[in-house]
Write a structure and sequence with these properties.
It comes from Carassius auratus. Its main location: membrane. The protein is α/β, with parallel strands linked by helices. The protein folds into three domains: 217 residues, Clc chloride channel (Orthogonal Bundle), CATH 1.10.3080.10; 239 residues, Clc chloride channel (Orthogonal Bundle), CATH 1.10.3080.10; 155 residues, CBS-domain (Roll), CATH 3.10.580. It has 29 helices and 15 strands. Strands 1-12-11-8 form a four-stranded mixed sheet. A three-stranded antiparallel sheet has the order 5-4-6. The longest helix has 42 residues.
């Protein structure tokens, strides 16, 4: 950008810029476990030789000829410089390649370096799959613990307890003498009126205990373990630093409290938090590989793959997981990351399959297979489900953000433990009387997805033979053709219970998502859509059965055949509602396809998902994750962000006309005391370097953190440095008197090629530059003179102002 090699007399620095460019917002040196501490024994100052000039003049010591450990790291709540990080990685790879041509040892190191990425993916897949299997097993057992205990062993859940029993019947396979409810254990009877009250009391007590333990552990040990984690993961993958969010304590507490939160019966899921868990595993394992430990951009490639692993173990959908990472969370997704994501998701799915947490050789609890083909006319109800999903998504986002803003801006947010306990109490009290709200969300989805078979005993499969007799399953009337699909009393009971469950789930999920416990949104959204879809599916089925003589239905409602598959409607409704909330499209269809194992249902899923997205986007452009990112003030510049007004760089840059002048450094005419005073009086993350205050000709850009650490090292280790010592950003030695104190030469930390735009550059182009290059600041110049600076925060504030939002809601830079 700026070739200044011939301007030694003007003190222009010439040479390559240093690769260790960083940014911070303050001068603290409280480095966390993710940041290597400053090695005080590593002296940065070195003699350059005993020449005559060295004897007659003060030594000019370049403090950063050798790497200082603290240089190149990032402070909390700041954005990384993608360009510098990628440049560092290219230089590292180039050095390894050159060395590998000269020695066998270097060649072996080069091979191991190339293989380290695949080894890391293998470890992430194994660790995430093992944790997901443990979470599934523990959550299933603790959920059943609210209702009773197994006499053969308290560690058996209800289903496993009755598997080994010889006294359970097929139609009542969930009842066996080895499984006792709490009322049976305490009172000894199971049929009296007070027994149900006692069971209800124990259900509520266990739910409150689990929720209390979850919120206390989160608050005491790992505040970052609450919520879904996906909004923060999206922000981190865009280059933001949140120290501790992917640390070991967050992983431990999130894993434990996720089991407790799911077991408490709250309307939440474990699928979203599993993405956070997988990313924690990836971040921790990155510390064992130098290539990823020292480079934030490379680490984010690994985190993108870990996001795919999280969805893979959550839904048993490795391909859907890769597409989810690409479509929903990743900011930078090169082709190499795609391959490694696929490999890691495959390993994780294989590990989960080996653990077999559900005992049915499936990766998820609600795996189903449909065998009845769908018909063209059914696209109409499928599109209606898509409209419902879009309306539900827009309603949920608006209501949940309003509730979270109320929690954030009022005293409600000061009492997270009480809030969790109150919501848990309401959930448990209202959920227990209705079968479909009492069971876990995963079991409910499995029940709703299920296609009624010959041996099903569910109320959803209760059909009549004729007006005078009923049966608990469809097999009793198999010979009667279409008569087997007439709704029985059990089905009518199930319908009004599902209608109540739908209203309950829609309302309670709004208050649950965002509380200070791990809470995913995938399962509650799927549950809402599955209930709505099953209700519509049964309605369509009965409409077809009662009107099968009509010309429009006669062709595909033949006697002895099933016209409608209500379970398919439940699956389509689930995809529509989840799509309305998250705005996922391709990845969502693939995930649902992998859940069902049927290619022929892709078209209904696509129709419902696209309709849902169109309807939701017409009402609100943001997904639930983007809405929470904006609520929290994170500096996330998404692909959907657009500049709709004609503005120029000069309209957004700082300083404006009414602002104080820009704080700058000069390349050779400032002392240590003046630089330290500038640092103390400002909170800026970096400073432009100019030739002089009068000319304002741009030389480069230096980051505050580099400057602070370099000056501190100079005072500690460079002999003779005092407050009046000169600070130089030049390559050439300036004239100096023999009695002058040694100068501090900081050319190595100067970025000689900062990104610049002219004052008249349209903001659409500036936004594209920031988004595609991952910049965190850009300098505005005119004919080589510095006019101002534009940061990522300035752009987000400007876009918020243009959208009539509060620009001060952008909290971080």
């Amino acid at each position: 950008m700026m070739d200044n090699g011939g301007f030694c007399n003007g003190y222009y620095p010439s040479g390559s810029s240093d690769d260790e460019l960083v940014d911070i917002s303050d001068v603290t040196e409280n480095f966390t476990e993710d940041v290597p501490p400053l090695d005080l024994d590593n002296r940065a100052g070195k003699d350059t030789g005993n020449t005559e000039d060295d004897i007659n003049h003060p030594k000019l010591i370049d403090l950063l000829d050798d790497t200082v450990p603290a240089i190149g790291t990032y402070e909390d709540f700041n954005t990384i410089d993608w360009v510098r990080e990628k440049s560092k990685d290219r230089d590292r790879h180039r050095e390894i390649t050159n060395k590998s041509k000269h020695s066998t040892e270097a060649l072996l190191f080069s091979i191991s370096d190339a293989f380290s990425g695949w080894l890391l993916m293998l470890l992430i897949g194994l660790m995430s799959g093992a944790l997901a299997g443990g979470i599934d097993i523990a959550a299933h057992w603790m959920t059943d613990l609210k209702e009773g205990v197994c006499l053969n062993g308290f560690w058996f859940n209800h289903e496993h307890c009755c598997w080994a029993s010889n006294e359970s019947t097929f139609h009542e396979r969930d009842k066996c003498p080895q499984w006792r409810s709490w009322a049976e254990l305490m009172v000894g009877v199971s049929e009296q009126g007070g027994v149900n009250v006692l069971n209800h009391f124990m259900y509520v007590s266990w739910a409150l205990l689990f929720a209390f333990l979850a919120v206390i552990l989160v608050r005491a040990f790992a505040p970052y373990a609450c919520g879904s984690g996906i909004p923060e993961i999206k922000t981190i993958l865009s280059g933001f630093i949140i120290r501790g969010y992917l640390g070991k304590w967050t992983l431990i507490i999130k894993t434990v409290t996720l089991v407790l939160a799911v077991s408490s019966g709250l309307s939440l899921g474990k699928e979203g938090p599993l993405v956070h868990v997988a990313c924690c595993c990836a971040n921790i394992l990155c510390h064992f590989f130098t290539k990823y430990r020292r480079n934030e951009a490379k680490r984010r490639e690994v985190l993108s793959a870990a996001s795919a692993v999280g969805v893979s173990v959550a839904f048993g959908a490795p391909i859907g997981g890769v597409l989810f990472s690409l479509e929903e969370v990743s900011y930078y997704f090169p082709l190499k990351t795609l391959w490694r994501s696929f490999f890691a998701a495959l390993v994780a799915a294989f590990t989960l399959r080996y653990i077999n947490p559900f005992g049915n050789s499936r990766l998820v609890l609600f795996y189903v297979e449909f065998h009845t083909p769908w018909h063209l006319l059914e696209l109409i109800p499928f599109v209606l489900l898509g409209i419902f999903g879009g309306l539900w998504g827009a309603f949920f986002i608006h209501a949940n953000i309003a509730w979270c803003r109320l929690r954030k801006n009022t005293r409600l947010g000061h009492y997270p433990v009480i809030e969790v306990l109150v919501v848990t109490l309401l959930t448990a009290l209202l959920a227990f009387p209705i079968e479909y709200t009492r069971m876990s969300s995963s079991e409910l989805i499995s029940e709703l997805f299920n296609d009624c078979g010959l041996l099903d005993s569910s109320k959803l499969c209760n059909y009549t033979v004729n007006s005078g007799s009923t049966s608990g399953s469809v097999n009793a009337t198999a010979a009667n053709g279409l008569g087997a699909r007439l709704a029985g009393p059990g089905l009518y009971t199930a319908m009004w219970q599902l209608a109540l469950a739908l209203v309950f789930k829609m309302l309670i999920t709004v208050a649950t998502f965002g509380m200070k416990v791990p809470s995913g949104l995938f399962i509650p959204s799927i549950a809402v859509g599955a209930i709505a879809g099953r209700l519509l599916g049964v309605g369509m089925e009965q409409l077809a059965v009662h009107n099968h003589e009509r010309d429009i239905l006669r062709g595909w409602c033949s006697p002895g055949a099933d016209c409608i598959t209500p379970g398919l409607y439940a699956m389509v409704g689930a995809a529509a509602c989840l799509g309305g909330v998250t705005r996922m499209t391709v990845s969502l269809v693939v995930i649902m396809f992998e859940l069902t194992g049927g290619l022929e249902y892709i078209v209904p899923l696509m129709a419902a998902t696209m309709t849902s997205k169109w309807v939701a986007d017409a009402l609100s452009r943001e997904s639930i994750y983007e809405a929470h990112i904006r609520l929290n003030g994170y500096p996330f510049l998404g692909a959907k962000e657009e500049i709709r007004h004609k503005t120029l760089a000069t309209d957004v840059m700082r300083p404006q006309r009414s602002d104080p002048p820009l704080s700058v450094l000069t390349q050779s005419r400032m002392t240590v005391e003046e630089v330290e005073r500038l640092i103390a009086d400002t909170t800026y993350s970096g400073f432009p370097v100019v030739i002089s205050q009068q000319s304002q000709r741009l030389v480069g850009f230096v980051l505050r953190r580099d400057l602070v650490i370099s000056l501190e090292n100079a005072r500690r280790y460079q002999e003779g440095v005092v407050s009046v010592s000169a600070v130089l950003f030049t390559e050439c030695d300036p004239p100096a008197s023999p009695s002058a104190p040694p100068a501090v030469k900081l050319r190595s930390i100067l970025d000689l090629s900062p990104f610049t735009v002219t004052a008249h550059t349209p903001m659409e182009i500036v936004v594209d530059i920031f988004r595609k290059l991952g910049l965190r600041q850009c300098l505005v110049i005119q004919n080589g003179r510095l006019l101002g600076i534009i940061t990522k925060k300035d752009i987000l504030k400007h876009m918020a102002q243009m959208a009539n939002r509060d620009p001060e809601s952008i909290l971080f830079n």
